[in-house]
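User: Protein folding is very new to me. Would you mind checking the protein record under this note? It all follows right here:
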Amino acid sequence: MNYAKLLLFGEYTVLYGGDCIELPYKRYSGVLTLEEPAEGEEQMARWSNRQLLEFYHHLLKTVNTKAYSLSFDIEQMATDMSRGLWFKSDIPGQSGFGSSGALVATIVNRYGINVLAESTENLQRIFAALENNFHGNSSGMDPLVSFLCVPVAKIKNELHVANLQQQLTDEIKLFLVQAKQENNTRALIQTFKKRMEDPGFKRSYSEDLVPLTNRIISSILDSDNTDWFKYLKELSQQQKAFYSDIIPENLQGMMDSDLFHLKLLGSGGGYMLGFTRDYKETVNFFNTANIPLIRIRHSDLIVD
């Protein structure tokens, strides 16, 4: 079984040399299985088996190019697919919770040979090459976090296991707001890459949002530093500016709030991630706006 993930900070910026930090989210998970689907799961199982077949061909092509050192038990995977292998998962697709990352992690778990002999950096590169099948441009962080089942920070292209226990306390509540975007992750990434072709936009992005995101990540990794929360309003406002074609208009109007702070979750196709010190009033605000809010419980997060 592999868990979903929360990209705490670093969406999109990580694809352009910025830092990021993400952690496993135990509320959702998935597992490869040969068991017969229960009533109501048949369609999902057939779709999943077809998806695995497409991924199998991608894997064959990638392995044959010797893009990385990891070997796979290709024959066993082919046999299992012929027997109806499918990914049984409750991770919502196109949601920002890393459903494709968890799938890639389970495949490597089940069919990778001598996986534990690989360095963390090699694993990230392997996972990026594999997940490219779904996104076209993957950092490899989602499957890495799902595979290792620990929080991971990428700082100046170096990977570190992160301890967030002293920073993500009950004083700060995390929550989700549904973005209701119809575009999938690949489409959203392609939209953003198109914007980055504008030299002015790219320069402002590199000089403003990337350093701010890096500063927040550096702060949250310092157990003696409590400054990271105070940067969230500025982050929210900058994301509203740089991701204006990704964030729904009804949520953009809420990104100047002092009561709570919103940011993208992953590519932004499913949910926005929120932070607040006053959860009760935040709930009242969203209830008044008739927008569902989902509490993220600390017990569902792996923080160290």
Observations:
- DSSP finds ten helices and eleven strands in the chain.
- The first helix runs from residue 42 to 64.
